[in-house]
Amino acid sequence: MKWKEVRELFPNQFVLISILNYHEGKDKKVINEVAPIRSIFEEDANKEFFRAEPGSIVYHTSNEECVIHIRRDPLMRVRRV
């Protein structure tokens, strides 16, 4: 299902979604296809965000695009072997 369709089904609310397809840019992942799991009450959104399984996220449908910004922490050093 496209993000636009999820926004129409769950207007102005948090939803738990499973990510089916995305494309990656420089510092972000743009989600193309999702499978909605359920809506989330606003007061439970933060808790559910941290409970989400890998491949799932909590996102608000007021956003026109479903985008995950990738943080590349300049203070974290990665040792290359």
What's the topology here?
Blueprint: H1 3-9, E1 14-24, E2 28-40, H2 45-51, E3 56-60, E4 67-69
Antiparallel strand pairs: 1-2, 1-3, 2-4
Task: Give a written overview of the molecule.
By secondary structure, the protein is α+β, with helices and mostly antiparallel strands. The protein has one domain. It has helices spanning 3-9, 45-51, and strands at 14-24, 28-40, 56-60, 67-69. A four-stranded antiparallel β-sheet has the order 3-1-2-4. Strand 1 and strand 2 (28-40) form a beta hairpin. It starts with a helix and ends in a 12-residue tail after the last strand. The mean pLDDT is 90.
First-residue to last-residue Cα separation: 41 Å
Number of strands: 4
Please count the helical segments.
2
Structural class: alpha+beta
Mean pLDDT: 90
Inertia-based shape: globular
- Give the number of domains: 1
Keywords, separated by commas or semicolons:
globular; 81 residues; 4-stranded antiparallel β-sheet; 2 helices; 17% helix; alpha+beta
Summary, kept brief:
This protein is α+β, with helices and mostly antiparallel strands and 81 residues long. Helix content is 17%, strand content 40%.
